[in-house]
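Good day; I would like, with your permission, to put a structural problem before you. What I wish to show you is a protein chain and, alongside it, a tokenised description of its three-dimensional fold. Here, with my thanks, is the record as I have it:
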Amino acid sequence: MSQQIQPSQLRIVNDKTTELAKIVYYQPDLFLHSTELQQDMIYCFKAYFVYLTWHMATVSQYLAGFTPALQKQLRDVQERVRQVSDEA
């Protein structure tokens, strides 16, 4: 995931997470023995993390527009989020 997730893509991630959750609940052995399903779950969680963290940092930066020190801290957080999303 080299780019930020868009709100419209969140529905796709949500649908995939729901599908995986059903497998975990109804077929736990299948999930435990499938690294592909486990990786899919990790990717979904990372997508949620990146989206929510980016969104919160952007909103906070907007609201703290008159505090330069806080803006710098928030830009640092956004940079860390970019790094996490590039690793995914």
Notes: Residues 7-87 form one domain. Residues 60 and 87 are 24 Å apart (CA to CA). The radius of gyration is 16 Å. The chain is about 85% helix and 0% strand.
